Amino acid sequence: MIAVDTNVLVRVITNDDSAQASRAAKLLARPDRVFVPKTVVLELEWVLRSAYGIDRQGIAAAVHRLQDLSNAEIEDDSVVALALTWYEAGMDFADALHLASAGPDLDFATFDAALRKQARRLGLKSVASV
Higher model confidence: residue 75 or residue 123? Predict the structure, then answer.
């Protein structure tokens, strides 16, 4: 198994450097398992949004394609999938991943009023103000 960095996934998704994109695609096509840390997924959303101007729908589609790779093992895949669902419903991806990572049994404390409002709107667990 090999773990990948965000830039490997960005090359495949954006094809902004065709030589690197080709090498990255070959790596992802190997029969070996590819481990994707959830922090790489977090950074991937940020890079695609902030550096490439890709919209929410395009980013979600890219992460879904990553999840669909037969040899990809995404760290805490069920947590990432839940965060992606909340992201697609309008929540900030980082907030969604933090909240999903906390699990269903913990309340979540934050100063972020927008996060609390979004969590209430989506009917999620208790997100409390500090």
Answer: 75
> What is the DSSP annotation of the chain?
-EE--HHHHHHHHH-SSHHHHHHHHHHHHSSS-EEE-HHHHHHHHHHHHHTT---HHHHHHHHHHHHH-TTEEETTHHHHHHHHHHHHTT--HHHHHHHHHH-TTS-EEES-HHHHHHHHHTT-S-EEE-
pLDDT digit string, tens, across residues 40-75: 999 999 999 999 999 999 999 999 999 999 999 999
Q: Please list, in sequence order, all residues whose beta carbon lies within 8 angstroms of the beta carbon of residue 90, skipping any fewer than 6 positions away.
A: 118, 121, 122
Give the global pTM.
0.91
Count of structural domains within the chain? 2
Residues 9 and 71 in one domain: yes
Say if residue 5 is in the same domain as residue 63.
yes
Q: Terminus-to-terminus CA distance in the chain, angstroms?
A: 41
